[in-house]
Amino acid sequence: MELSVYKIDGTESGKKVVLNDAIFGIEPNDHAIYLDVKQYLANQRQGTAKTKDRSEVAYSTKKLIRQKGSGGARHGSLKAGIYVGGGRVFGPKPRCYRSKLNKKVKQLARFSALSYKARENSLIFVEPFSMEAPKTKEFIQILNNIKAGDRKVLFVLPENSANIYLSSRNIPYVKVISVDEINTYTIMNAHSMVMVDGVQDILESRIKR
Predict the structure, then answer these.
(1) Domains (ranges, CATH) in the chain?
(2) 123 pLDDT exceeds 60?
(3) At what angle do helices 103-119 and 30-43 cross, to 10 degrees?
(4) 113 Cβ neighbours under 8 A, 6+ residues apart
(5) Which residues pair with 155 in a beta bridge?
(6) Closest CA to 41 of 158, 188, 168
(7) Mean per-residue pLDDT for 91-101?
(8) What is the mean pLDDT of residues 66-84?
(9) What is the mean pLDDT of the chain?
(10) Could you tell me the sign of the dihedral formed by the alpha carbons of 162, 128, 187, 35, in that order?
(11) Cβ(1)–Cβ(125) under 8 Å?
């Protein structure tokens, strides 16, 4: 696949990028994408959810009614889960949700996600540029010039740029990352993807043979 590279003013630079079919042209593996997204979201969880069970609730342990003869069910404590303010039955406990996924599966998932974006014509390439100072209005103008849209734009840089990041931080539908931070979830979660020319070469150099 061949795509034009745009300048930040929206005009074509005259350069074309040829996308590697091993990255942007494979048959997407939906299950690999599912596994990678599932692991990514699970790894974001703190796992600190905690409720008190009946052994931890501060209540009297006095037996409510006699064991037999009341005509009703047996009750031994207000701490039981059936009472308001009683302990939670089978409530969550602190735990680790992290899981492991093989590197080749993660790579397959990432390339599958990129292939989906290429199929949907959601990739836009721009010339490398820099910003002298953080200017949100200037960054919005760049997005408008290259017609990136206003729905979840993922902006991928070859390396971190503080001014570009700060310029985009206040725009709710834009996420700026470096190529080192790229992952399946952020790709699939984006409606359009803007890549600075050179990112594709870095991705190609990292293919696990």
Answers:
(1) 2-43+101-205 (3.40.1370.10), 51-91 (no CATH)
(2) yes
(3) 110
(4) 28, 33, 184, 187, 188
(5) 176, 194
(6) 188
(7) 94
(8) 91
(9) 92
(10) negative
(11) no
Count helices and strands in the chain by DSSP H and E runs = 7, 6
Residue among 84, 81, 85, 80 nearest 64 (CA): 80
Please provide the distance, in angstroms rounded to a whole number, between the alpha carbons at the two ends of the chain.
21
List pLDDT tens digits, range 76-92: 899 999 999 899 999 99
pTM (predicted TM-score):
0.83
At 24 the three-state DSSP class reads helix
Percent of the chain's residues with pLDDT above 90: 76
Mention every residue, 6+ apart, whose C-beta is less than 8 A from residue 205. none
**Cβ count within 10 A of residue 200:** 23
CA distance 7 to 202: 20
Residue type for position 57: V
Helix (H) or strand (E) holding 126: strand 123-126
Lay out the sheet containing 192-196: strands in order across.
12-18, 2-6, 123-126, 192-196, 153-157, 174-178
- On the question of pLDDT at 124 being above 70, the answer is yes
208, pLDDT greater than 70: no
At 89, list the tokens: 């039955």
